[in-house]
Automatic annotation (TrEMBL):
Pfam families: Epimerase (PF01370). This is NAD-dependent epimerase/dehydratase family protein. It comes from the Bacteria. Residues 11-234 form the NAD-dependent epimerase/dehydratase domain.
Amino acid sequence: MSLTATQPKRVLLTGATGFVGRHIHRALIEDGHQVRVLIRPGSADRLAAAADILETADLFAETFPHLVAACEGVDTLVHAAWFVEPGRYLEAEENLACLSGSLALARAAVEAGVAQVIGIGTCFEYQLPSDRLTVDSPLRPETLYAATKVALFTALERYFAGKPVRFSWARLFYLHGEGEHPNRLVPYVRACLAEKKTAKLSAGTQLRDFLDVAEAGRMIASIVSREQAGAINICSGRAITLRAFVEEIAEETGQRDLLEFGSAPLRPGDPAAVVGVSNLAPLVPERAIHDESRDQAAHQSRGPDPSRDGHST
């Protein structure tokens, strides 16, 4: 299935100063969309691109009228905000506030006449481990973070079913790249290599689906134009062991000798395999559709070509 690109839209983006949100914002601007962001006071310097700025002290505790006002005049809501403090977010009670606040934002979007809503989910919604996760794979969250994401997806899918709203849910896999927290795997390994220190790692047998966050941002932003509804895996579709992935990084500078596998324990509950199957529909420019239709019409007006049906001599 392929989808036709649409005209530029007016987009409200939450979470625009975050790890993923910054890249969504940049990609939206590159795609020609007009972007409005809803951010905390004093955080505008962390934006990745120009935007119409609205401020809120706490998005998830914001009043309903304020949320409606923020949504007014936009075509699409991309909701990338969530509580993601490293070391805390998986079981933090803040996830419950994010859930309730996100439901209020969805209601506000409907009230304001927003036609398209794109939410951000996680691969940890799925039952794990699995080396072939499709959007039809069973859901079985094992953390409060994942459980609240599943709850939001399920509720919004049902809520929007009776509304004139196209709903998409982008499930993120293992992202890395610009803006990543320094304690995460890739920044840790790169820091060790830069300082000529040994990187202490687990055995690295886990299968993962890694994707550069910039590419993830482009994929999510493209949903605005694709208008593809339903759950969408934001993944590479490439299965690679953690060890092989880290070795690729070290090979860039010829420093594989600084990788020490097996010297760090596996994290409790770390799944053996998390690999996605991409279902992002190919995007066909609207002009290409018109050109193809015109060519087909011209061909039909000429009548059949005998050299193409096996009857030529």
